[in-house]
Amino acid sequence: MARIELVSDELHTEFNDPEILELGMMIGQYIGFGRLLKVLDLEPKYCAT
Predict the structure, then answer these.
(1) Alpha-carbon distance 35 to 25, whole Å?
(2) What is the pLDDT of residues 1-49, one digit of tens each?
(3) Distances (CA, A) of 1 to 4, 14, 35, 40, 49
(4) 36-48 as b/e, with b when 16 or more CB fall inside 10 Å?
(5) Most exposed of 2, 22, 30, 31 (fewest Cβ within 10 Å)?
(6) Cβ-contact 23, 15 below 8 angstroms
(7) How many other C-beta atoms can be found within 10 angstroms of the C-beta atom of residue 8?
(8) How far is CA 30 from the centre of its chain?
């Protein structure tokens, strides 16, 4: 079985198709936002403690 089929099978044990789509869209949004922050040099340079 291919890797993507294994991931798909595991996701379908917990989520239905619309939820998997929404999860993928949210992951893409967060990755894109992180890249935008990096390009605009807006990410923090250190961890505030």
Answers:
(1) 15
(2) 688 888 899 999 999 999 999 999 999 999 999 999 989 988 777 776 6
(3) 8, 20, 33, 41, 46
(4) eeeeeeeeeeeee
(5) 2
(6) yes
(7) 12
(8) 6
